[in-house]
Amino acid sequence: MSQCRTAVISALLPANVAAAERFGDFSGTLLKEEREALGSAVPVRQMEFAAGRSCAREALQILGAPEHPILRGANREPIWPEGVVGSITHCRGYCAAAVAYADRVPTLGIDAEIDEPLPDGVLPLIARKEEADGLLVCGSAFQRNWDRLLFSAKESTYKAWYPITDRWLDFDEVRVDINPQRNSFDVTILRPSCSEVSLLRFAGRYLIQRGLILTAVAAQSS
Ligand SMILES: CC(C)(COP(=O)(O)OP(=O)(O)OC[C@H]1O[C@@H](n2cnc3c(N)ncnc32)[C@H](O)[C@@H]1OP(=O)(O)O)[C@@H](O)C(=O)NCCC(=O)NCCS
Question: Is 3.90.470 the CATH classification of the domain at 111-219?
């Protein structure tokens, strides 16, 4: 795993996570099985899918795992090789994948967003009351698009949560507490009936750079 820390997004992830990313250039290739899994799609979607899969295969190589087609599950989640967890993200001008061995990192999620405010009316749909209040406090200390960062933190959380639970998560079932001094956030899953007690908390980190908001969450083995 010698080159695994060269990706910018690696700064947000534990040391035993391998990551690969692309800025601007969305070139990439698909293995035959991956092409079949995508089916017909508009060219832009084909490009982002190929870029994501290419990053994913590069990250697997860095991790030391054998090359493997990364297919798609019933809910669009990437299917990783046995014993591996991972996550993919793409937005305009950026694409990344991160992978780790599941016995070291039980699950992880990454997300990239353009660094701009959410469209009008979206914040109340994705934020709990206490989160919206928290953003005002963050805003008094630092000028950031905190609403977009909150959204990204929840997207990262969902990508870490879904593969190990097979369950949908509503935006109001998650509480994100942002710590602007540490560029980090704590995630609490607020599901009274949730039996996966060990999954109730994730640690998250964020980075705002090159016009992008990057977030990542990872659960660590206890
Ligand atoms: C799935 C979702 C999180 C993707 O996020 P996005 O910002 O739209 O797009 P991104 O480019 O960052 O991520 C897309 C990648 O996420 C991954 N993904 C999609 N569904 C997934 C799932 N169920 N579980 C894990 N990863 C998933 C895929 O790898 C996908 O890329 P690919 O189709 O090229 O393989 C989003 O579309 C979604 O459905 N959100 C609603 C659920 C949610 O976020 N709830 C929040 C609860 S706190």
Answer: yes
